[in-house]
Write a structure and sequence with these properties.
Length: 109
């Protein structure tokens, strides 16, 4: 009997939790909960994209110790806007997620 009561209480708590976290409700607790979840979800997805981009760059890069290193590693071109395509789409996704997180949650202190 006590075991059945525990299952009913746990089931009721799960149902209550699922129904109380609605995006439609305009209460402070709901707004704060969804704001925090959205913020960290965007940051997590951006970090995952950045890590996969870094892993792909690290796996594709090969050191050649016989090449002479240039004095200036930075190659400056006159037209900065011509290179609009990202070399790796994961970096572009990470940048989009970072911009989204800053735009949505940058004004919070």
């Amino acid at each position: 009997m006590k075991n059945v009561f525990n299952y009913i209480v746990v089931g009721a708590l799960i149902v209550f939790t699922v129904t109380s976290c609605s995006r439609k409700k305009d209460k402070f607790l709901n707004r704060a909960w969804h704001s925090v979840n959205t913020k960290y979800n965007v940051l997590f997805n951006g970090n995952v994209a950045l890590e996969s981009g870094l892993n792909s760059v690290n796996t594709s890069f090969k050191d050649n110790y016989w090449d002479i290193l240039p004095v200036e590693r930075l190659q400056i071109s006159d037209d900065f806007q011509s290179d609009t395509d990202a070399k790796d789409p994961n970096f572009e996704r990470a940048e989009e997620k970072a911009v989204k997180a800053i735009q949505k949650h940058g004004d919070e202190h």
